[in-house]
Amino acid sequence: QAQLVESGGGLVQPGGSLNLSCTAPEFTLYYFAVAWFRQAPGKEREGVACISGSDTSTSYADSVKGRFAISRDKAKNMVYLQMNSLGAEDPAVYYCATRGDGRCFTGWDRQKDGTWGQGTQVTVSS
Length: 126
Prior knowledge:
Layout lengths: L4 E3 L2 E3 L5 E6 L9 E7 L6 E6 L6 E3 L7 E6 L4 E6 L8 E8 L20 E5 L2
Parallel strand pairs: 2-10
Antiparallel strand pairs: 1-3, 3-8, 4-5, 4-9, 5-6, 7-8, 9-10
């Protein structure tokens, strides 16, 4: 089983919203930065958003700035991705991943290591 579990994906109309969740059933996310990635069929995985483990500062891909918001609830061991104004560039499988350095440094969007989930499907269709 995946060490991280994503949920909240589904089918949404263009312009609609979804809220994705990420949790770690077997360990705490408290000290980790957590990033959301997405991968569409035939395309490379791309970073979407990242939230640090200390001051909870955030970073976003240019393509989602102003539309998506990453947040976390450490008491619930949860990380969220609120997705608004969904459009044609957003359908993909969305994954969350931990960063052991606890920070969203420049280059976080190219992360390959760490702990990953199996993903949750987001579909945008009219």
